[in-house]
Amino acid sequence: MSTWWSFFKTTIDQILTLSNIHTCFSTLKKDGTRDKRKLFLECLDNVWKKCKAHFPHPTFLTSSIDPETGALNMKKVEAMINTVSPIVSFLFRGNTDITNLRSETALKAIILYVTDYITKVSLKTPTVFNVI
Q1: For the chain, first and last CA: distance in Å?
Q2: Are 3 and 11 in contact (CB under 8 A)?
Q3: Nearby residues of 82 by Cβ (< 8 Å), 6 or more positions away
Q4: Considering only CA atoms, which of 102, 81, 83, 84 is closest in space to residue 92?
Q5: What b/e string do you get for 6-34 counting C-beta neighbours within 10 Å, with b at 16 or more?
Q6: How far apart are CA 5 and CA 120, in angstroms?
Q7: Alpha helices in 58-103 (DSSP H)
Q8: Cα-based angle 63, 24, 85 (whole degrees, multiple of 5)
């Protein structure tokens, strides 16, 4: 059992290191013009030059409820990784961002995200079916 758990932890570390750590990029050159070789805009390509994915995220040593806002702060010790499920990442062997969809706003946001993702011009039909 201990050998398997050791293998599990090592595998999860490798998967998260390779697929879940966010790195901010920009397609803008030093002179302010956009690099035409890049097909998509990167997270820093906005007027504020701040990450569109809001990285780095705040970290929390324990899960708690914010007394002022009532927001649920899940335990998070890495600022450049979204919340993940180690079991799901292990089973799917890839990026598996996990989020709480209890609010109507969160549900609308994820529907919009998935819709935008699968309607990208460059996606092939098998990729669209994988997303669904």
Answers
A1: 35
A2: no
A3: 20, 22, 57, 97, 98, 99
A4: 84
A5: eeeeeeeeebbeeebebeeebbbeeeeee
A6: 39
A7: 86-92
A8: 35
Altogether, the residues listed in the chain come to a count of 132
C-beta contacts of 13-18 below 8 A and 24+ residues apart: 15/89, 15/90, 15/93, 15/94, 16/81, 16/84, 16/89
Per-residue pLDDT band at 2 (split at 50, 70, 90): very high
* pLDDT tens, position by position, 92-103: 888 777 776 777
**What pLDDT digit, counting tens, does each position of 6-22 carry?**
999 999 999 988 888 88
- Closest to 19 (Cα-Cα) out of 7, 11, 28, 30: 11
Q: Using an 8 Å Cβ cutoff, are 56 and 79 in contact?
A: yes
3-state class (DSSP) for residue 84: strand
